[in-house]
């Protein structure tokens, strides 16, 4: 893995105004994310996880502070984002959906179809390459969203609970497929999840955020070897130790968010 910084966040703050009241969503976020790192973020509902991701995506602006994303190639997009909600275009085939970002970048048709077909193969949907979204299950649609994000070859990949709406079986399958794709290129990835298990299975580090307003409470390094077979690492004693360490840090914040601690 490379060790230069890909993302640097310094003293980032985000304030909203609602009903003539000032609401602080994020306070003094300071973190550096290494190039090629799979960086997971967990925290209680309402702590600002998605707001932080949207700032990184350029969909929101910080009130103050600094966000730097290192760019090595001006011809590549800065980021691609995968949302929890299915975001495939219903009027396009699987191939056309996966190739969509490449088409916007004016990549020649033959090349973009080759790239898209490769990622479609990696997510196991080659037989459905010319199918439309209404012919796919929810899990298959989310595979298309993931493949489209990787195919566009962004500097960073932003994922906002992409598997949160799926059943447990589909979630486990997609987690393994995501790792398989990620391990081919070590794309710098920021991944939001409510699941400690998911963060442990996927991440190199896990950042725990405080209850509203969101701050960095702690960062845990996930020193589980790669490549990872998820069914195997869940059996390791060290997996349970890491799970407990993250839960010990997160538990109080969840209680605060529920109004059980003042």
Overview of this protein structure:
The radius of gyration is 19 Å and the shape is globular. The protein has nine helices and nine strands. It has two domains: 5-72 and 156-257, P-loop containing nucleotide triphosphate hydrolases (Rossmann fold, 3-Layer(aba) Sandwich), CATH 3.40.50; 88-154, no CATH class. The mean pLDDT is 91. Helix content is 37%, strand content 24%. By secondary structure, it is an alpha/beta fold. Strand 8 (205-209) and strand 9 form a beta hairpin. A six-stranded mixed sheet has the order 5-6-7-3-8-9, with helices on both faces. The chain has a three-stranded antiparallel sheet with strand order 2-1-4, with helices on one face. Helix 5 (138-151) runs parallel beside helix 6.
């Amino acid at each position: 893995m490379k060790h230069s910084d890909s993302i640097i966040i310094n003293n980032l703050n985000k304030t909203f105004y609602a009903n003539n009241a000032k609401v602080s969503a994020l306070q003094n976020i300071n973190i550096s994310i290494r190039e090629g790192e799979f960086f997971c973020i967990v925290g209680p509902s309402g702590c600002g996880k998605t707001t932080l991701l949207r700032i990184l995506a350029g969909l929101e602006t910080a009130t103050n502070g600094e966000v730097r994303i290192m760019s090595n190639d001006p011809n590549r997009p800065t980021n691609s984002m995968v949302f929890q909600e299915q975001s495939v275009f219903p009027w396009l085939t699987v191939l056309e959906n996966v190739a969509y970002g490449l088409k916007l970048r004016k990549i020649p048709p033959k090349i973009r179809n080759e790239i898209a077909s490769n990622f479609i193969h990696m997510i196991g949907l080659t037989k459905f390459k010319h199918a439309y979204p209404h012919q796919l299950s929810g899990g298959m649609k989310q595979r298309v969203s993931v493949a489209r994000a990787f195919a566009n070859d962004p500097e960073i990949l932003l994922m906002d609970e992409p598997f949160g709406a799926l059943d447990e079986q589909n979630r486990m399958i997609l987690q393994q497929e995501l790792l398989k794709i990620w391990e081919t290129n070590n794309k710098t990835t920021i991944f939001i999840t409510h699941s400690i298990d998911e963060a442990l299975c996927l991440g190199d580090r896990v950042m725990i955020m405080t209850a509203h307003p969101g701050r960095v409470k702690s960062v845990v390094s996930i020193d589980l070897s790669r490549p990872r077979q998820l069914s195997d690492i869940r059996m390791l004693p060290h997996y349970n130790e890491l799970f407990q360490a993250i839960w010990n840090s997160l538990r109080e914040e969840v209680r605060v968010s529920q109004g059980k601690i003042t």
